[in-house]
Specification:
alpha/beta, Ribosomal Protein L15, Chain: K, domain 2, 11% strand
Length: 157
């Protein structure tokens, strides 16, 4: 392979539309813009314009707010951890943390941390380190003989 022989796959690129090149092209004369008016000119910006009346987005009241400090946790259920242990993707003898869960494919990017949820059954003793856990998840892990180490206190589901 040589640099001068590299090309895109067939169909990967498309020729640009040549407008205003005669009536035979199908997009000659007005180049597909119709006749006259604001939309036929360049620099059209009328998406939210309602003819001068107060736009709908300014007439309607605003409610609520967005909490910019909210944490976005990745959720992992104890049932999925048990399935990964059964499949051999996680070694239950070692502590389970973010890196282990990522290598097992249970989580992708950890975002603001991992939150353990109690959906599913857990029969293996595990030692898991997460950002937060629900009460159901903590009780499921402790019932199996393991422990949960978390930064946040448990919250009700």
């Amino acid at each position: 392979m040589e640099l001068n022989t590299l090309t895109d796959n067939r169909g990967a690129t498309r020729n640009s539309k040549r407008v205003g090149r005669g009536v035979g092209s199908g997009i000659g004369k007005t180049s597909g813009s119709g006749h006259k008016g604001q939309k036929a000119r360049s620099g059209v910006a009328i998406k939210g314009f309602e003819g001068g009346q107060m736009p709908i987005h300014r007439r309607l009241p605003k409610r609520g707010f967005v909490n910019i400090f909210r944490k976005n946790y990745v959720e992992v259920n104890v049932g999925n951890i048990q399935k990964s242990i059964d499949d051999g993707r996680i070694d239950a003898a070692k502590p389970i943390d973010t890196a282990v869960l990522q290598s097992a494919g249970l989580v992708g990017k950890a975002k603001d941390g991992i939150r353990l949820l109690g959906n599913g059954d857990l029969s293996t003793k595990i030692d898991i380190h997460v950002s937060g856990a629900s009460r159901a998840a903590i009780s499921a892990v402790e019932k199996a003989g393991g422990c949960v180490v978390s930064r946040a206190s448990p919250t009700a589901e």
